Prior knowledge:
Elements: E1 9-11, E2 14-16, H1 19-33
Amino acid sequence: MSKYNNKKVKLDGHVFDSKAEADYYSRLKIHQAAGEITVTSS
Length: 42
């Protein structure tokens, strides 16, 4: 059990440590689809 009672969330083949992290990822994907941000790999 985590200190803050976070639940792991699966989304798009990724596992996030909390719903808040999954929500942030979802917002980033929306911005990426709209062309507002780009993703580069290092």
